[in-house]
């Protein structure tokens, strides 16, 4: 592949370079297993001494093509696809944590990730301290402990629409000798590449914009290859000391910049098995082919709708970093100069019921447990996705009980504005 191709070109051409007479679309290799002529060759694959396919839980040619495209888009050394965004975030963190480890995470993250870190991983003996991403370096520093292994945030938070100061988080993480993982789901690599700002590992729920058509659930972990694990070897024994389950192989020594991802496949995929089906990866790839066009349209539509909502008497507050009055406008200009995403968070004057009345009055816009998709949809986290969180937890993760998450799609914006207008008239 030519060097330094633009992101729009990579959306279409990345990952797959057909040779003479080969199909232009990556083929769906819907096979669990791969045949070899002699036993020695297969043994070498198991020893990770040779590259090749043997079982689709570990690697599959279709999945690899799509993973490579996402790695190229993010500017990383490699990528692993997972069966969901939840699996991606769990794998990304668990690859460098174990019982007794500690995580520092922004409070401004997706509810599912908040639960994963705060509840489920706690049961595995991994503690998490949530920090207000707007706090000073000194305040955030206080969350770190000797056993902290990773820092975590979201480029644009779901559902609060806050923009992460990635450079600040990277600075604090690195000062403590740990990597920064950023969930880049809402921004997508079209609008932000966190690696350019010091982030070490990027995750995605590909279920959202990368697929974009509400067709497939999936996730991705991308490594920048930049974090120097060996410089902090005592913190990351799983990467920097021999793995007994792989004949004493040391991932960072044997695979260099690919050590982190090799461990992710060889240990976590092997033992926990959360791969996407090749057919889903094929569909994800179709979505990626128009990502650059869709993101531009999502941003144009959302900007117009946010400007409209900001003017409405009934709107109590609104978060969209494209608005000049938004608290995150300048962070948005820095990290997302070409636009952020299609998601807007706002609240109506009144109570929870006002939000419900507004949503029930919409005709074109769907009420859906989905976001970041080509069809415009709304969701009220307090009564839908975040029902399991108490009011206190809701507020701790920056979610106002009146918050309506409006995910602006790529329809004609005049139809969307008309729908919003008629629904507001009924509130
Ligand atoms: C949806 C979402 C996830 C979880 O992804 P799934 O594909 O639904 O498992 C993680 N992070 C963010 C920011 C999300 O929006």
UniProtKB/TrEMBL annotation:
The modification N6-(pyridoxal phosphate)lysine is found at residue 208. One of its GO terms (biological process) is transsulfuration. Its cofactor is pyridoxal 5'-phosphate. Keywords: Pyridoxal phosphate, Transferase. GO terms for molecular function: cysteine synthase activity; O-acetylhomoserine aminocarboxypropyltransferase activity; pyridoxal phosphate binding. GO terms for cellular component: cytoplasm. This is O-acetylhomoserine aminocarboxypropyltransferase/cysteine synthase. It comes from the Bacteria. InterPro entries: Cys/Met-Metab_PyrdxlP-dep_enz, OAc-hSer/O-AcSer_sulfhydrylase, PyrdxlP-dep_Trfase, PyrdxlP-dep_Trfase_major, PyrdxlP-dep_Trfase_small. Its EC number is 2.5.1.49. Transmembrane segments: none annotated. Belongs to the trans-sulfuration enzymes family. Pfam families: Cys_Met_Meta_PP. Signal peptide: none annotated.
């Amino acid at each position: 592949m030519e060097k330094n191709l633009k992101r729009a070109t990579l959306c279409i051409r990345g990952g797959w370079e057909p040779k003479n007479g080969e199909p232009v679309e990556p083929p769906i290799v819907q096979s669990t297993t791969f045949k070899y002529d002699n036993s020695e060759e297969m043994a070498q694959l198991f020893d990770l001494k040779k590259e090749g396919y043997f079982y689709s839980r570990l690697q599959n040619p279709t999945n690899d093509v799509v993973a490579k495209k996402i790695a190229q888009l993010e500017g990383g050394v490699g990528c692993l696809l997972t069966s969901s965004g939840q699996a991606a975030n769990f794998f990304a963190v668990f690859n460098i944590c174990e019982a007794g480890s500690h995580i520092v995470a922004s409070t401004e993250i997706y509810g599912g990730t908040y639960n994963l870190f705060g509840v489920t991983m706690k049961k595995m003996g991994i503690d998490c301290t949530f920090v207000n991403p707007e706090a000073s370096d000194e305040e955030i520093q206080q969350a770190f402990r000797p056993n902290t292994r990773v820092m975590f945030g979201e480029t644009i938070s779901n559902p609060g629409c806050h923009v992460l100061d990635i450079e600040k988080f990277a600075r604090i993480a690195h000062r403590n000798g740990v990597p920064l993982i950023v969930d880049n789901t809402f921004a997508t690599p079209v609008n932000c590449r966190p690696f350019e700002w010091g982030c070490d590992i990027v995750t995605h729920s590909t279920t959202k914009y990368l697929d974009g058509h509400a067709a497939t659930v999936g996730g991705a972990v991308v490594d920048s290859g930049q974090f120097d694990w060996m410089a902090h070897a005592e913190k990351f024994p799983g990467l920097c000391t021999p793995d007994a389950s792989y004949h004493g192989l040391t991932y960072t020594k044997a695979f260099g910049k690919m050590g982190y991802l090799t461990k992710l496949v060889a240990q976590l995929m092997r033992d926990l098995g959360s791969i996407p089906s090749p057919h889903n990866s094929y569909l994800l790839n179709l979505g990626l082919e128009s990502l650059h066009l869709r993101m531009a349209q999502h941003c144009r539509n959302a900007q117009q709708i946010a400007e409209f909502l900001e003017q409405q008497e009934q709107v109590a507050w609104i978060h969209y970093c494209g608005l000049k009055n938004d608290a995150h406008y300048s962070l948005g200009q820095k990290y997302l100069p070409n636009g952020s995403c299609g998601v807007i968070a706002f609240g109506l004057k009144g109570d929870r019921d006002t939000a419900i009345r507004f949503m029930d009055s919409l005709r074109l816009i769907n009420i859906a447990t989905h976001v970041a998709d080509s069809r415009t949809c709304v969701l009220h986290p307090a009564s839908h996705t975040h029902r399991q969180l108490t009011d206190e937890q809701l507020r701790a993760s920056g979610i106002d009980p009146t918050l309506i998450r409006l995910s602006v799609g790529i329809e004609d914006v005049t139809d969307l504005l008309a729908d919003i207008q008629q629904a507001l008239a009924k509130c």
